[in-house]
Write a structure and sequence with these properties.
The chain has 15 helices and four strands. It has one domain. A two-stranded antiparallel sheet has the order 1-4. The longest helix has 34 residues. Helix content is 70%, strand content 4%. Helix 4 runs parallel beside helix 7, helix 7 packs antiparallel against helix 8 and helix 14 runs antiparallel to helix 15. The protein is globular, with a radius of gyration of 22 Å. The chain has 407 residues and is mainly α. Strand 2 and strand 3 form a beta hairpin.
Length: 407
Amino acid sequence: MQNADLKNRGMTFHRDDNYQIDWRIIFIVMGLMAIGFVSLFLALRADSSGSVTRTLAVQVLWWIFGWGLAVLLMHLDADQLFRFAPIAYALGIGLLIFVLFAYSRSLAASNNAKSWLSFGGLTFQPSEVMKPSLILMLARCVYVHNNKYPVHTVSSDFLLIGKMLAYTLPVLVLMHLQNDFGSSLVFVAIFAGVFLVSGILNRILIPITVSVASLAAIVLLAVTTTIGRNFLAGLGFQPYQFARIDVWLNPSGNSSTNSGYQLFQSIKAIGSGRIFGNGAGNISVNVPVRESDMIFSVIGEAFGFIGGFVLIALYFFLIYSMIRRVFDTRNSFYAYVVSGVVLMILFHVFENIGMTIGLVPLTGIPLPFISQGGSALIANMIGIGLTLSMQYHNFTSAFSKKETSFK
């Protein structure tokens, strides 16, 4: 099947009619889903707050909706996803602007972020919709550019970087207005995922990567000094963000504060599980918000190092399977899309588990497929659906020999 718009741009998608379902990825996600339900049940039962049955039922509904989206996206081919990317991006930007005026005041008072919409008893975070939307738009941007400039040069690569930034910076600005630093980091990770596979010359890629890493190190060093904090405050850093850094650097010394207590209790719970855990019926350490952001502490306390290792191994096999699909595909558009999905999920996993054990500062990022809630789950299932689409359709992409430049 060929789309006239793509054909006019010198791009043609060719399809192999031997559809294939990537059952490995599906079974891994189902395994994560099972661990998520068990962990959520243990967390809710230990806290004895609210209805365990109702909360689990809502999570089941989110999973049903998520699987439905994944199956739907699996049946959409590269042509359809390519054309849908601008619509998804515009929708995501519109929601990010809308939430600035209609955000939940009660949630903003508790977490300092104007990033949640509330509908009765349900809450929704529009930034989660923006994540796969940005992935699709960046993939489309890189695909179109690389087909227009098949030979990479310094000037064409800097032009590509400018185009990618033009789509990413508005999202980061809106995240800043929402005081959602954690989601901002996820969008940076998505940008990095597509950036790294875009084909940019190494003499540009390496200096930029080193510069960004150096800048991050300088910022971390700056937050440890009064002068540095004053400078960062002038750039828009909030007091609660500095407080999280303080908690990260000294969790036991700040255990009297809300965030300090949360991190200290999380480390205590995971440490108490030791090798084999205390058992599913022995969740005794109180960890605030353990059903969502801190759910890895439940796994560590109940199932110990072995339980945590099994979970991380599942994530490893999921990421490995997705990366293999990137190398197997002959369609660069799909490769860009799945690379963005991989970095999105990988960053979530690293940040969430890292913050529960004190490796990185607290950011409020959920654990993919495990934490309670629907917004993040839907974003991750959309990513899974995009990955399944790549395997299902077996597309290749090539230049149309009839036209080699944009008009």
